[in-house]
């Protein structure tokens, strides 16, 4: 765990590798319950079988907006328990976003006490008075906790911080050490780095890594919150091998690998189902049902209620068909037989 005072030095060294954003496997009527055995298997698979270095817990893919505070706390506890059993050095990142600052403090204090390494706070989704309001929110949480904090700048919040606003939060709240820039606006990330050069930045637009931004120190050597476990299996470590090349500075080789392995084509084939609901195509979402359907194709357990909780919609058949075809083309699944993954046992 990194305390607020240690946060910035810690982040520059610890935030490396692949960080898996975990889905929540639901079960029971309308998905009212959580399949804890399935969740434990997912954690063991990511950290044990795939060897990924970080976990990103109770965030967008986990559908945090649909979870109770108690569920979010228990999901984090289980991830820490299973993750550290598989790898004592795994970095645990907790999303403690909430519309209420008091709830955010409650979740962040719990993350601190449970042993998480850092808590990320997504820009509040309701009534955020721009950067000034978000700064007040971060200052409120930081004054009541002692844990490394990160910003999570996602368009799903409805408001995206400007580079100047993000830099001001970094300047005025010492616990803030990192940011997940999820708005796909790399020009803003470059400016944010110029304004706050020691802030650890992850840019969701993957093209910046091919442009040498890691070499230039603009972004960090990590995928802080991806669904990396949906891009590879222990038998075909496509995602890990690609990013190892990028982190080693072998950019030409990385681009060739992505082209020949099918990773680039997969991004095109999968379409926008993970992040776009057609009925509201201008809104960036984390469609839990789409992520879980992809996971089920790879043989991962998703619970007996594989859809999202409300207010998300049910994943339509055309989405499932397109996702399955993308995996068949990539070669991670075989139409002739179901995929069987080896998940480390508890």
TrEMBL record:
PANTHER family: 4-HYDROXY-2-OXOGLUTARATE ALDOLASE, MITOCHONDRIAL (PTHR12128:SF66), DIHYDRODIPICOLINATE SYNTHASE (PTHR12128). This is Uncharacterized protein. It comes from Mycobacterium parmense. Keywords: Lyase. It comes from the Bacteria. The keyword rRNA processing does not apply. The keyword Lyase applies. One of its GO terms (molecular function) is 4-hydroxy-tetrahydrodipicolinate synthase activity. Pfam families: DHDPS (PF00701). Belongs to the DapA family. SUPFAM superfamilies: Aldolase. CDD domains: DHDPS-like.
């Amino acid at each position: 765990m990194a305390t607020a005072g240690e946060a910035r030095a810690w982040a520059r060294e610890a935030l490396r590798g692949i960080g898996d954003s975990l889905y929540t496997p639901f079960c029971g009527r309308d998905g009212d319950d959580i399949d804890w055995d399935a969740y434990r298997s997912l954690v063991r698979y990511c950290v044990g079988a795939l060897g990924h270095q970080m976990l990103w817990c109770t965030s967008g893919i986990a559908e945090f907006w649909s979870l109770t505070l108690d569920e979010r706390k228990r999901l984090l506890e289980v991830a820490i328990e299973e993750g550290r059993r598989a790898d004592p050095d795994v970095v645990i990142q907790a999303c403690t976003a909430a519309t209420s600052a008091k709830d955010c403090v409650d979740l962040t204090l719990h993350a601190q006490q449970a042993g998480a390494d850092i808590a990320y706070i997504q820009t509040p989704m309701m009534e955020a008075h721009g950067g000034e309001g978000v700064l007040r929110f971060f200052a409120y949480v930081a004054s009541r906790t002692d844990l490394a904090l990160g910003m999570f700048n996602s368009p799903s919040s409805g408001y995206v911080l400007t580079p100047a606003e993000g830099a001001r939060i970094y300047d005025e709240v010492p616990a803030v050490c990192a940011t997940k820039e999820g708005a796909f606006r790399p020009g803003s990330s470059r400016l944010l780095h110029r304004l706050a050069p020691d802030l650890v930045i992850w840019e969701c637009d993957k093209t910046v890594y091919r442009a040498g931004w890691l070499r230039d120190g603009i972004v960090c050597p990590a995928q802080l919150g991806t669904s990396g476990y949906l891009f590879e299996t222990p038998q075909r470590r496509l995602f890990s091998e690609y990013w190892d090349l990028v982190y080693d500075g072998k950019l030409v080789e990385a681009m060739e690998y992505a082209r020949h392995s099918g990773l680039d084509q997969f991004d095109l084939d999968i379409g926008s189902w993970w992040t776009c609901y057609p009925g509201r195509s201008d809104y960036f979402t984390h469609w839990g049902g789409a992520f879980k359907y992809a996971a089920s194709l790879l043989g991962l357990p998703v619970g007996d209620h594989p859809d999202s909780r409300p207010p998300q919609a049910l994943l339509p058949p055309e989405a499932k068909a397109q996702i399955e075809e993308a995996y068949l083309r990539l070669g991670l699944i075989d139409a002739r037989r179901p995929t069987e993954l080896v998940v480390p046992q508890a």
